[in-house]
Write a structure and sequence with these properties.
With about 850 residues, this protein is an alpha/beta fold. It is built from 31 helices and 26 strands. The protein folds into 5 domains: about 100 residues; about 220 residues, no CATH class; about 100 residues, Helicase, Ruva Protein, domain 3 (Orthogonal Bundle); about 160 residues, 3-Layer(aba) Sandwich (Rossmann fold); about 120 residues, no CATH class. About 55% of the residues lie in helices and about 10% in strands.
């Protein structure tokens, strides 16, 4: 009977999508039309094209540089999440900004922590991992009406709908909750884009051009902002109101529905089928279990209960359950059951008689089996008694066997003792051999996905570690870097405080701005104010021109104040004033200078003790300790020594032009047992000395020369760079090409400061421009040497030349412009000023 019920329901299901599903849709449309109008969420701002913006920018696609500027302005206005429907599958034409516009746009979206793009950009390798994606698919029913969107788009990874992705990111929710196969859209108004009250693009652009931050903040502060750069393209589908449907508009109404908490969900075909089959089977099972009027009463009550349940779920949980298919299938099963009971009543009686006869036959067979088992039990009892008698007769033979076994056990004990002695000797020999082998250094995997990811991120920032404590410190520092709080780094010398300070800068929203590092202990007390705050021309003897201080140079960026604990008390009060008021006076100036600077300070001294002893101001300490991170010394993370040794040996060998050596196991264990009071700096000096004084490719314990008379970190001689200061331009350019024009990596390989490498590359770019008669493309290719580096060099060359032009534009005389260039580019090598002279005269002659 159950099989019959399922068969009838399956037959009904084959034609139900055409008839009964349409009835369900009609019922849902009736509810959608007559329910109270849905409001537009105040947390949603849609910025769309209007006739004024078409006149301003034309009807073609918007310039990507313009989009980048809009995204930056919206982000600075405090938007919670930004959504954008824009394709990156083509390069911008020259009239729309070209490659420079593309580069600016890609760099902008990389720096956005809360950005959702459409799935059309999922195959673009330039997108940041922080950028999320959403699909724009819509679902149409048999009547070509769009009532739902698919919940997930399966590709290389699950991609949510565009509106749902924006909603999740705004609510900062992680893994999405369980959702049905599709999500019904509760439209606001008539379902058009205008029903969501979009903000005209021309009005926003006017506010951006006028730098009207107050108005932009009023529009976008803590809101979800969706940029619609082109009018949505309609598809051959309809909205419930009757007009053509555009996928982007449907997803925006989905987002508005989620924000106003008016979600209505519909089950997928599989779920509807399972509910229909389950309900039909329950009705069939009820009719079979409770025959007669009681079964029919329970079945009818079940139909009423399911209808009430469907209405209650729609009203309370906004979930549409199927009505027509389950109820119709249940009625068919009820009628079929009645007909079947009428036709098969006589057959059931005959089957009952057959069952009784079968049970009697089975009982007779069981009795025969019981008799056979009783006979077999008696036979087994006799066999057991015979076996006991045989065991008693063999007792004497057993004693003889026991004696023989004892002798064999003694022999076995002797052989095992000899085996253990041989094993011990073999273990000792293997240990001695292992100590002479090269230590195998492999980066440890931490069996934690998050820590492994943090380890890879640290390696990209130049931080070599596999210590879980330091990785968790980096995770906290990464979170704090996004906030504008002051960061205080505590740790012994050589623990990498400046490296972590640069990491804070690169992980912060100021990563594209200037990073200035200042050693407070090296600043002369007499020049403290001039160095940090700058001076005006004539403010003191030798002040021949205005000079910007470190704080002004780091405006909108980050300034790293190293050795802050060595600052004098009178200087501490001046620094405190800058931290409190964010303004200062240049030496000799009467007008204050206001700056926006992120402060990162570091010290190896105990500032709390300094506060209690009086050599450090308490108010300055509280200003600096917004976020405090203590960098552990190397002796507390000895697990990092192997990976640091591998990294240092490779770098030192490259500097000395030798193959990279290896350490033996006993040498590695000896290194791990040291205190390393100079931390990482002392470890590197030890390895530099070992590589310099030994030419073998396997360094043993003796090659390390670690004795009681070891040098301290301050007494240790500094490593000589790979290339001396007057190194030829060709050698520097070759090193830049080897490191793919990564200035930090090149500076590290040469043993120079990064600014020195930058000045050398700038001079080479000016020289190439002169030799190529001002042709930027040829000059960039001459510097790059390889097409794979061409784009990087083009951007750097355009920046250097643009800076030069901005310096000389105010001057009409070439001599005055060249004199200004010598003052502004004072760190440029003298041999490159001939190229600067030629470029200046050529530009002013135009």
């Amino acid at each position: 009977m159950a099989l019959l019920a399922v068969t009838l329901a399956a037959a009904l299901w084959t034609w139900a999508p055409v008839t009964f599903t349409a009835l369900d849709h009609a019922a849902y449309d009736f509810w959608l039309t007559h329910r109270a109008p849905r409001p537009v969420s105040s947390s949603l701002v849609i910025m769309a094209r209007d006739p004024a913006s078409d006149e301003l920018f034309g009807v073609e696609a918007l310039d990507r540089a313009l989009l980048a500027r809009l995204i930056t302005a919206i982000d600075e206005a405090g938007a919670a999440v930004i959504g954008l429907d824009h394709r990156l599958d083509h390069a911008s034409p020259a009239q729309s900004g070209g490659a420079a516009s593309d580069a600016l746009f890609i760099e902008t979206i990389k720096n956005q922590p809360a950005l959702v793009l459409t799935q059309s950009t999922a195959d673009q390798p330039l997108l940041s991992e922080a950028v999320q994606l959403g699909h724009l698919r819509i679902s149409t029913d048999a009547d070509h009406v769009v009532r739902a969107v698919p919940a997930e788009e399966n590709g290389l990874a699950a991609v949510p709908p565009f509106g749902l992705a924006l909603y999740r990111l705004a609510r900062r929710s992680g893994a999405p909750p369980a959702t049905p196969d599709t999500v019904l859209v509760d439209y606001a108004g008539d379902g058009s884009l205008q029903a969501l009250s979009p903000l005209p693009l021309s009005s926003v652009w006017a506010a951006v051009e006028a730098h009207d931050g107050e108005r932009l903040t009023e529009w976008f502060k803590d809101k979800i902002v969706v940029i619609v750069p082109q009018p949505p393209v309609a598809m051959p589908a309809l909205l419930p109101a009757g007009q053509a449907a555009a996928p982007l508009t449907v997803h925006l109404h989905l987002l508005n529905m989620l924000l106003t908490d008016s979600r209505v969900c519909s089950l997928g075909m599989v779920s509807r089928a399972l509910i229909s089959f389950a309900f039909t089977g329950l009705i069939a099972w009820t009719l079979l279990l409770a025959r007669g009027p009681l079964g029919w009463f329970i079945a009818m009550a079940g139909l009423l209960a399911y209808g009430s349940l469907a209405l209650g779920v729609l009203a309370a949980a906004h979930l549409v359950l199927p009505l027509a298919v389950p109820l119709s299938a249940a009625l068919v099963v009820m009628l079929g059951t009645a007909l079947w009971n009428q036709l098969t009543s006589h057959e059931r009686v005959r089957l009952m008689e057959q069952d009784m006869l079968r049970l009697q036959q089975e009982a007779a067979a069981v009795r025969e089996a019981l008799v056979l088992r009783e006979t077999r039990a008696d036979t087994l009892q006799e066999d057991l008694q015979a076996a006991r008698a045989a065991a008693a007769q063999s007792a004497e033979e057993q004693d003889e066997l026991m004696k023989t076994a004892d002798a064999l056990r003694r022999q076995l004990t002797d052989v095992q003792a000899q085996e253990e002695e041989a094993r011990g000797r073999l273990t000792e020999l293997e240990r001695q051999l292992q100590s002479l082998r090269a230590a195998v250094i492999e980066p440890a995997r931490l069996n934690d996905i998050e820590l492994d990811r943090l380890q890879d991120e640290c390696r990209q920032l130049g931080i070599v570690t596999q210590d879980t404590g330091l990785l968790r410190l980096y995770r906290d520092m990464k979170k704090g870097a996004r906030a504008p709080l002051t960061v205080l780094l505590l740790g012994e010398p050589g623990t990498g405080k400046e490296l972590f300070a640069r990491a804070v800068h690169r992980l912060s929203p100021r990563s594209g701005k200037t990073f200035i590092a200042v050693n407070m202990a090296a600043v002369s007390p007499e020049l403290f104010e001039s160095e940090l705050f700058g001076h005006t021309k004539g403010s003191f003897t030798g002040a021949t021109a205005d000079r910007r201080g470190y704080f002004e140079l780091a405006n909108h960026g980050t300034i790293f104040l190293d050795e802050i604990g060595d600052l004098r008390l009178d200087h501490q009060s001046k620094l405190l004033r800058v931290l409190q008021e964010k303004s200062f006076y240049r030496v000799g100036a009467t007008v204050p200078t206001t700056v926006d600077v992120r402060i990162v300070a570091a010290t190896n001294r105990d500032l709390q003790r300094g506060v209690s002893e009086g050599w450090f101001r308490e108010d300055l300490y509280f200003r600096l300790s917004g976020l405090v991170f203590r960098l552990p010394p190397l002796r507390e993370r000895t697990g990092d020594i192997p990976v640091l040794v591998e990294r240092f040996l490779a770098d030192i060998a490259a500097e000395m032009g030798r193959p990279a050596p290896k350490l033996s196991n006993d040498a590695m264990q000896f290194l791990e047992a040291q205190e390393w009071k100079g931390n990482v700096r002392e470890l590197r000096q030890c390895l530099e000395q070992a590589v310099a004084l030994n030419e073998t490719l396997l360094l043993g314990k003796e090659a390390l020369r670690l004795t009681g008379d070891r040098l301290t970190a301050g007494d240790r001689p500094k490593a000589s760079p790979l290339l001396p200061e007057p190194a030829g331009d060709a050698a520097v350019l070759d090193c830049l090409r080897q490191h793919e024009f990564d200035m930090q990596a090149t500076a590290k390989a040469l043993g120079w400061d990064r600014s020195t490498v930058t000045q050398r590359l700038k001079g080479l770019c000016f020289q190439a421009l002169v030799e190529c008669n001002g042709d930027h493309a040829k000059a960039a290719l001459a510097i790059a040497g390889d097409a794979s580096h061409l784009r990087t060099v083009e951007l750097k060359l355009m920046d250097y030349y643009g800076h030069l032009v901005s310096v000389i534009d105010p001057f009409k005389s070439a001599d005055e412009a060249i004199a200004e260039c010598r003052r502004r580019f004072k760190n440029l090598p003298d041999r490159h000023f001939a190229s600067v002279d030629a470029l200046v005269r050529r530009h002013l002659a135009k």
